[in-house]
Structures are given as structure tokens and as C-alpha cells.
Design a protein that fits this description.
By secondary structure, the chain is of the alpha/beta class. 44% of the residues lie in helices and 11% in strands. The chain is built from 31 helices and 19 strands. The longest helix has 26 residues.
Length: 777
Amino acid sequence: MNAIDKVVQPELMNIEQMVKQVCARIMPGRPLDQWIAVNPFFNWSDRTFDQVSEDLSLREGGTLWAPASYLVEQLKSGRIQIEQIEAAARELGFDVVSASELSTNLMQQNGPLDRLPLLSDVLTETWNLRAPFDFNTQITQQVSQLCGSVFDQAFSLWKPEQTISLFEHWKRSLQENRVLRQSVHLNSQIWRTVQGSAGALDCIARLLPDLLGEDQSAELYLHVVLARLRGWASWCAYRDQMQPEGRLLEQLLAIRLAWEALLDDGQRDEGSVWHNWQRSWKQIEAIDREAAMKWRRLAQHALEHACRADIFSALSGRVEVDSGEKTARLVFCIDTRSEVYRRAIERLDPSIETAGFAGFFGMPFGVDQSWGGEVTPHVPGLLTPQALVKSQLSESLDSVERFRRLPDLPGSTFTFVEALGGTYLGKMIQRRLKRAFHAESMVQVSPDIAELGDLATRVQWADSILSGLGYQSDWPKLIVLVGHGSQSENNPLLAGLNCGACGGQTGQLSSSLAADLLNDPEVRQALRTRAERAVDIGSDTVFVAALHNTVTDEIRMLPARLTPPAFIAQRLVTLKSVLDVAKKDVLFERAQLLGGGNGTDLPDRAQDWSEVRPEWALCNNAAIVVAPRTMTRGADLKGRAFLLDYSAGDDVSGDTLLACLNAPVVVAHWINLQYLASSVMPKLYGAGNKTLHNVVGGNLGVFEGNGGDLRIGLAQQSVFDQGRLMHEPVRLNVIVAAKADFIAKTVLRSPKVAELVRNRWMAVFSWQDGVFERVIL
């Protein structure tokens, strides 16, 4: 039978809807300067975590469970105890086995299961009997180079015509590349069909029926096709999010599908490439993956119980206490790195209290970059800026900024200095000696709060901040809003080390604008005199902005519009002395995971061009605790927990908890799943080796080496150390200091969060009177 004789399946009648369904599963990426951690499977949350994990092994060749070898190590080291195995077995309805039995069973199931093949995979196997040739590698290279040139952001001297679609660009490029077409023996009849198609969707509709076998799922097949270009798929999804009418993801799918059709010789007889592909597909699809990975699933759940036990143990016994008058309150981002610093400060000076707040401090704005004509969001990934402020970067710095971005050219990062040779030596020395945030030296932005909107808008924003801080009648005299940011050289993925709640930027602007807003006399007057829920901050309370450098662990006070009174200035002097000592303690604690020592050499990493691991960042994150600080103060959570201040007693309606769930908790969940995915599937959802990174198109992303697919996720140096996995891959534990029924009712008010909880993408616990109770919807 010839391919042309095939009958269109009923499933293909609504091809457009099916293509939308496939494309909707792809989580958008972000440009390098706005890169933040995201859950790559956020759009799969309508299915359970375990179901997706099994299905991924079929579709893409990886799972969300830790590798069997890693789990065996945890069993042999005693990290996973029999009580955790028993708890996991009860949870899953499995029979209980001993640790040694589980280890033995895991080793028997060690190794990945085959993923569903494409026709190009089978053709490669057949072709290699004559001469080595990898069709998938060639296809990926051709499409990837095309995407890099089409999407290039003004760094190339020559750019393809911008008035035609990505799909048309691809057809032209293949038409002009006669050598490639002849070397891979493209099907001329299919090529005429592709050329004659009216667009991407029409091309898919023409080609798909002839490729599919009997009872072969079109949705499953199209996902497998698109997943072979998951990096560029995430970029196209981002562009479609910005401009939906572009339908770039649909075009990318059409391009990759067309390649499969072009390699099909049209023969359907037994022994043909298509026939062998269909046989292989059916054999692999028939594998009982639930049974094949049963023990890995059990061990993964047991590992999560072990992690949870550690966190509960560290928190247990904590009760709310009033430790007396406070001299200052430091409000940090909820970022796990702040947990270490907060613990050190409070241990040194009990009169200082700390709090956790989303790092954008409730300020949903973006920056209109005067030098580039671009808008940089300073908000969490799920939000959009509600106001724009102007960058104050002077025109004189424009050329300097452009030179600074030279490392973003394709020959970049570790190859950049090699290319410039001795001409870059002076710059390297200067950066080595200088310890200051690069962003501060280049972008001195100090916008007026009037740019945020009219007085009513500014009062609304201020009220939102105060609500998050907890309304009170007696405010501390000094409140420091501490944003954070990272610092490193030669690091295209630097934004991922900055504040995720600030859209991959540092928290400098957010903390500065929030402090200016809350210090503004006009805003305070409006808050004090309004009819409903009046708030009197007090004329002697001053808000100060600060920035925590997470590599050097220096906390620097930022310039203020208002000169603080003398007694506040004196308190700042005293606070600085405490911070100087706390910094040493924090550096020492961090150093134990970075080669040992006392940590005095860690700040050098910020200016070291050759440093591939300036910090571990949020590696090993495992929980978010939504509770008053009095319940967590003194608990050593080892930098594994996001800490968000929340008082259920002040939240009768549940509105505050709902806001916590919809923003900070989801952000923490994204970070958690990004680290998990890059740990357990580094080849599929990791960015590869930093030393091989080359920036693509100025700001699009990175290649590992000089080609291949666009890499997504975290670099291997962010989660691995010389091949050893440093991040414990577990799902997020959300621990809320409130009654279980109250939490459940509030969760159900957020459909997306309820879906994440119901389908076990994260575990939610009520924490009351030292007891932790899982919230089941």
C-alpha cells in the first residue's frame, strides 16, 4: 500500500484544535535578561505528577523521578529509612519492602526505557548500516540555525527578511540548500506538497494522515515530533505569548513534521522504513511503564517523606512568642538564600526581627529601557506590569552598555575572552578588583514614584505592601526592605540567580520604589485619613531600601530620596555592624558546600571570569513555610525553605492567604520543579555545561557548543558537582500555619493551585500546635 492511499482518521478532522492542544502543553521560555526558573510541566498539571512522569518516559525518554542509581545511594546511606518506605507504600497502595529489597528491585529497573521513535530515528539506524549519519542531528542543526538567524535580536550584520513567516523562511532555506536536499534523499513528491501548502496548519493537515499508522494517536505523535525541538519550542511559545497572532509554535511543529514526511520514501511494504518504524512504535508503546517503574516511584515518594521529616523536625516545637520591643525589622525576599541570613542576624541581635515578603514587594511595574526601547518586567512570571517607569541610563552610557553586551554575541562567554586576547586583559583585572553590582554601575535608575500612577493607585500599592507586612498599630521605627541580586562574570544565565519575583532582575528598583512610596507624606496622609481600614504608619517610622548580594553576602543600603532623622541614621550604623558579623557567619555556612574553608574567598567568585559556580543559589529548595516569623525563628532550615510571613488570625476572609498561594507559592513551585527537572533530566531539561555555552541571537538563549537545540533549564554546574547530584529532587512542601479546613477552602478558590495540589505537584500541610496535617482536596 502506498502512503497516498491512506484514509484520514476521524481524529484528524479537527486538525487545528489538536495542534492547539499539543502546542498548549509547551511552557514558554524567556529571554536571557529575563530568565527565571519555571515549571516546564506547568501546562501538564491537569494530570497527576506520577502520570506525567510515566508519560514523559514514553514521549521524551525521561521521568520526573530521581534516577534509580541515585535512589539506591539514598537507601544505602540511610537517608531513606524503613519508616519512610512504609509511609510511601501506604500512600501508593504498595506492599512494604525492606530497604535492601527496594535497592535490589531498583537496580533491576535501572536504566531508561525507550522513548517513542520517529521515522527519522529508524532511518538513522538503517542508514548507519552503510555509513554513519544521524538524521535527527542534521535536522536539529538546520532548524536551529534557521531559528537563530530569524529570531536574532539585532546582533547579526545580516538578517533574514522579516515580512515572511518562519515556515516560509524554512521552505526558502531548504529550497536554496540543494546539497542538503540531495544528501538526505528527500521525497520529491512530498517536497512539492510542502511547497504548495498554504501555511503551517495546511501543511500539517496534508502531511499527517500519510505518516500515521492504524490506531496511532495523532496527538501523541505530534507531541513526540515537537519535543525533539523543545528548546526552540519554548522560545516560540514565549513569542506567541507576547504576540499570539504569530503562531510560531504551530509553524515550528509544521517544520519538524515536514522533515519527517520528507524522509519518508512512501513505501509501506513489510521491511520498509515506515513499516519498521510503526512496528518499533507499537512495541515501545505497549510497554507497561507503571510496572516497569514501580520501585522507582516508591523510592521517590520515600525520599520525599525523608525530606519532609527533616523539615518538620526543624520546625517542631516552635510557638509564637513576643520577644519584646524591636529596634528594626528587615524584610527579605522569601528566597531560600535569605533564610540563612535571617537566622544569622536574629541569632546575633534578638532585638532585630526579620520578615519574608515576595521580592518585588508588591510593586508590579516594568522598566522602559531608554537605551534599547524595550520594557523589562520586574514582576513574577505569572503577572504583567501595571505601570512603567523610565530607565535613567544616560545617553553617554549607551555605547558603554552596547560594549558590555558584546559577550552576548554568538562567540561569547568562555570563547569571548579568547577572541579578544590581550585587549581584554585590563578589563579582566578591573573587574577582578572591583566588587560592586554591575547593574548598579551601569543602570542608575531612580524613578519618581509619580510614574507609578495617580495618588489613588499609589495608595492602593502601598496598602498592598502594608497588608503583606501585617497591619499593626505600633510599627518599628526602622524597616529595611532588602531586595537581592546575584553577581558574576561571563554568565549568560545570570538572571536566573537574581530575584525570580522581580522577573530575573535584582530587587534594587523594587525595594527602592517601595521604600519611597511608603515614606511619601502624601501617600501616608491618604492612608491615615481614608474611611475604611485607615493605617497610621507613624511619622517617626522610616523605610529604607537595601540590596543583598547573594554571592558576596554584602547587604548595602541604597540611596534614599528623604534624609533619615539622626536617630535612624544611628540605628543604621548599629545595624551595619550586626550585618558585617552576620555576613561572615553566612559565608562560612555557604562555604561548607563550596569546597570548605571559612568563606572569606567566596566574594572573589563574583569577579572571577573563569568561575562556573558563583553560588549554589536555590539548589536543594524543598519547602515554603507560610507562617509568622515567631513560629520559625531559630529553626535551622539549612537554606532549603522559602519563608513567607503570614498570620491567619488577621486573615478571616482568607484573601491574604489566597494572594500568597497565587503568587509566592506558585513562584516557589516553579523554582522547585525547575530544579527538579534539571536534576533528573539534565539532557532534556537542563542547559548543559557552562564552559561550552554560546549565546544565541544576543538574548535568545544558549547553545551547548556551536549548535544543536536551544538549551533550557539550569546549567549542570547549578545542580551537579563533578557528576554528583547536589540538589535533592523532591516536590515542594507548602506548610501553612492555619487550620486544614481553612486552607482547603482557600486553595479551592484558586483553580490552578487547587489543580496543582489535587494532582500532587506539591504537598500542602496545615501546621497547628506542633502538628502537621496534610491537606487533601
